[in-house]
Amino acid sequence: MPARVVAIDGPAGSGKSSTARAVADALDFAHLDSGALYRAFTLAAIDHDLPLDGERIAALAGALPVRLDRTPAGYRPEIAGVDVSEAVRSPAVTARVSAVAALPAVRRVVNAMVRAAAAEHPRGVVIEGRDIGTVVFADAGLKIFLTASPEERARRRLLQENRLQDAASVAREAETLEVRDHADANRPIAPLAQAPDAIPLDTTGMGFDEQVRRIVELARKLFP
Ligand code: CDP
User: Fold this and answer.
1) Contact predicate 117/3, CB 8 Å
2) Which of 9, 8, 177 is nearest to 98 (CA)?
3) Residue nearest atom 23 of ligand 1, based on CA coordinates
4) Which homologous superfamily is 32-122 in?
5) Which residues form ligand 1's pocket by a CB distance below 6 Å?
6) Tens of pLDDT, residues 145-175
């Protein structure tokens, strides 16, 4: 039986990771963060001083290897057998990941890894990213497009990273997120976009438990 897939897409800092994790817990599904995999490819390329060359980065990822490790809670990115979930969140990776994710050879390999992980999972997977509902799992049973205002997303990101949330920091972080969203939404291949059949969820001013509850309710109806 094909895996049951909940696709959660949306811009940077829209709360995809925390939401997807909580939804997966509630459904007893696995959580898969496709962005973390793009970040792992980026980290490997930085560590090996590779230029922005998709074929070379994909070959390096195969050799190391970069892979998704299945744990009871879900999938986490590994490089040469080492868990890099924390390392991939570094500012150096964040600054370069959109350029690496725009390379077709990289997207081909990441998509294959995400699809293989979902296919092998016995229960179901909550997958977050930018193109899960439009490209990777265009036939996903449930698609959510998560958004929030730029200021709200900036505040959440600063909070997540234990940084000061004064007005100047919020404005600066909102600008950083906007640069990445613009790059992700305007690339020629698999741009960040809402699938026509995705359910939009604007979480500005919505409590975390509320947004999780809404998605879980929809999923339970579809996947009884
Ligand atoms: O967590 P955050 O919102 O900062 O971003 P992420 O989900 O870790 O994704 C990092 C980057 O990977 C994005 O800015 C995109 O460039 C890329 N990405 C993508 O192209 N396609 C996906 N399905 C997921 C991420």
Assistant:
1) no
2) 177
3) 129
4) P-loop containing nucleotide triphosphate hydrolases (3.40.50.300)
5) 12-13, 17, 34-36, 38-39, 97-98, 101, 129-132, 180, 184
6) 999 999 999 999 999 889 999 999 999 999 9
